[in-house]
Amino acid sequence: MFARIAGVGGFVPGEPVTNQDLVRRGVDTSDEWIITRTGIRARHLAGPGTLASDLALEASRRALSAAETGADELDLIIVATSTPDCVFPGTSCILQTRLGNRGAMVFDLQAACSGFIYALNVAEKLIRAGSCRKALVVGAEIFSRILDWNDRATCVLFGDGAGAVVLEASEKAGILASVAHADGSYHAILSVPGHISDGKVAGDPFLRMDGQAVFRFAVRALFDVALECCSAAKVSPSDIDWFIPHQANLRIIDSTAKKLGIDSGRIIVTLDAHGNTSAASIPLALDAAVRDGRIRRGQKLLLEGVGGGFTWGAALLEF
Ligand code: ACO
Q: What residues have CB less than 8 Å from 198, skipping those under 6 apart?
């Protein structure tokens, strides 16, 4: 028995906000700096009042429609997010009721930018164990709310969005291997350190990052975990049809792909249009390439992510 992707969906809010738009809004940066260092040209930013569950709902409806699955058929919903609607209940519970499902096992998963990979891993294991048959796995983020718009080194990097997949138990091949790791000793290089206490935010409520330390960590972890996942699936990197990495920085993606021997024609890149949407980035990239026809049934895909924690992981699947 495999866990197989039955349908994919994605959603980004509003119109694209270009690098030039950020300059016009007063960020001390330039289109040239952002493109050269990151590859990002635009991102989408949610309007006031929009919450992660709003984005998750749209992406989920599209994934359910692609999978020809009713929300009532789901017995598992996982929402990977670091920007939930509220402290509790989980954004997953809010999504569940808005989709019209009752009774499924439902929870949020917090692994920062690796959240979707972690959630896919957990859903796959629950399906393979026979505990669930149809799962909705969502990455949904509104990072624009946790950015310090006076910190040009971070605010230009991120965007808002959601991506979702429906996973189902299947005798046809699906996820061949999935692996995940963490090392909390690196927590300080990328974090939102604040918390709520006595009715106020205690500590710093904004995303803080040591960009160069993150860069070094990401390149090493993404290469190692890709090899580990390929080995677990008994698939050589040269046999992968599409590489779908976390969309944080084009230089990290290119460096990882080069070390793996994957040429640029086999990499799905959407960060130019979306920026880094954290847990939403991988399913958003997957959705874009499924909808434009590049990814087809039967092809081998390598998905991988890295994020705050630090956390990292990969999944190799036959689509
Ligand atoms: N526009 C213009 N100049 C800027 C900007 C900006 N937006 N941001 C920083 N600078 C300036 C700095 O002030 C500095 O100026 P100075 O030399 O006069 O002091 C100069 O650019 C260089 O700054 P660095 O931080 O050294 O720039 P670096 O080359 O390291 O690039 C970057 C920064 C793009 C963040 C890089 O470190 C990186 O890509 N790191 C990976 C981080 C990442 O991808 N994070 C995403 C989240 S983590 C994840 O998803 C896994």
A: none
